[in-house]
Model the fold of this input.
Amino acid sequence: LEGATGLYFPQSEYVETVYVGQLAGTPILQVHAMLDSDSERPRFYLCGINSLRRPAHSSWFNLDVNTGILSLNKTLEESDFAMLNRHSWPVKKLVLHAMVLPNLTKKSQCIKHSPRVTLDFVNASLPHCAQTDMKELCFSHRDTAIPHIMENRFPGALRQLRRLTRLHVCPNYTISYHVESDTPAPFAVDENTTELVVTAALDREESERYRLLLVCTVRTETLITKVETSLDVFVNDEDDNAPYVNGTDTADIIISFNRTKGGSFGTLFIFDRDLTPIFPIDQTHNRYVGTLLNKDPWIKETFDIKGSFSEMKAALGGIRETVHVYQLVLKRNLYVTENRTLQLDYLVNDITYPGLEGTVSLHFNVTILPVHMRFANITHMFTLTRRASLYAQVGRVCVENCQQFDGFRVTYRLELPDKNASADVQSCYSAISITQAEDEMWGLLYVNDTEALRRPECQDLQYLVVAQEEHTLLEASTQIHIILDAQANKASQGSQQSLSCAENRQRGDCESVRGLGATTGRCQWRQVTEKGISENYSTCSPDLRTCPDSFCDAVESKDSSICPQDCTKKSVIGGHERGLRNGIQAGHGTCYCISEKCFCEKEDVEEVICDDMCKTVIATA
Amino acid sequence: PRLLAKEVHLNVTDLGLGYQTKEELIFRYCSGPCVEAETNYDKILNNLTHNKKLDKDTPSRTCCRPISFDDDLSFLDDNVVYHTLKKHSARKCGCV
Done:
């Protein structure tokens, strides 16, 4: 099997230039393969990347099966260039592919990760020594390939530094190379072969990258010239570190108010000094497999462990490593009555780690507490004026800790404390009602019948609020007391139609009208002088505590004219920013709404401000 | 003659909508006389108003208004928030 060998090319691309007139047998470049052991003998071949016919030019070149030296099979003629070049470009790119195998073969199809050899065929003859820049004599300016070396492998040559095409261009020059680096690096130049050699097995966990300086020395009879170029060599990772826990492998978890499916609890970390690549997706390098060790079917249908990983840099040395995060996840909503203690054991296995200690076990100690539904032990008193309009908000109730509830729903209803009360008294109780939004835990009390509210015989109202959990039907109740002001206002007793407060554009109009949802019976004005588009725009509202607050609550959503500023679904005219769901988040100047259509605009009438001139006039008057 | 929308090059801040931005736009508006489009209805209204037969009422006359609007305009404000203006500029005008 091809995968059984560790042979690989340290770079994915080779680049060189060829010229018209170069003779058959001329060496062009050398490819190298990294070895697994000293006894390995790599065999090099040119190959085709697909089964289609190979390009005509591939027969012009020969790759030496033992040395990896690519040379010309034929002398390059001007006619060769003309044949390839239908577009009359000055340079034609010739592409070949090379592969390496540990044995002799007749295969011609490329194996995985075969590097590309790109040859720029120039329609000119090789420049003479006098025309050749020293830099080009030493290094190809086109060659930008970056070597990658696997860690823990056998040392060896990785790159030919000499430009083989220029070997005989300047016969009187002596060219030699050496390698330098700021930090100790296991790299050297073999003086006999001018190859860059890695002298020891590398460890990615020690250094991920070596920054080398390649120095080329050119000696002529009179001059020594040094040319330098930098080269980064990267170290590729393999799974040679076992996972480990830094700190605790146990999480203590208490599940109480949040019992929702998908809720996550506790966080345990597993560290791994190896990298976990995310691309390509199908690879298994350093992937972990987790197993829940508990056999209990209740646990299996209730809990899951969710794992995710990310990359971080070690504090020391800045080498990248992997952190795996594990959390307990609820697979279903827990009932409020469920009450138990259990321990979950989770085994994590680094499946590609070759050693014995590739597993870590994690423990989640879970306590599930039942939810006791009760109201806070206080008297629920609300005051309300008899002038209040329909849909005026009286107050809100909630069982203890309701804001933290998740995964179950509590609904509220109003009951009479005395079911045997007379029909007259009972009719008073239609004054108030309770409502609740689908995703809200609060029960909102609001005026449901203004006529009952205003009848003098309807004295202070007392109700029983009953909260009920939807699955278990568990109930809790509390008494609420609504205190009405002593006198029903005769003037407001008529069947005066309540309009939408939001229609009013001016303070005077706003504060003199009755509006739907108005707690005091009259609309309230919010005056703001901020410039531009502001969340504090001026507007007329039934109750400034609830409208506008950028949230369309359960009472407001009963009628679109109560608070269209929070609830409108239609597009708003004028400078504004829309709310996340509905309504106006911010507006310019004054925002008003006619039915559900809202407008925001700045009044042109400047407020009369008494300036210095004005003050003088008043003073002298 | 067909009424043509006139155009003027403005900064978005000139629109007075409160947006703070450096973006600009071409604003097109309708203006022009609509005498040619008037009917007997308009003549009667004119006469009644002139003779003060209609108390305080002054019913609207034919006027030059957009009959279709330009495409929406989107811009980024100084706080890097996007806004989109709809029906803000005239594409075609007519006497209505």
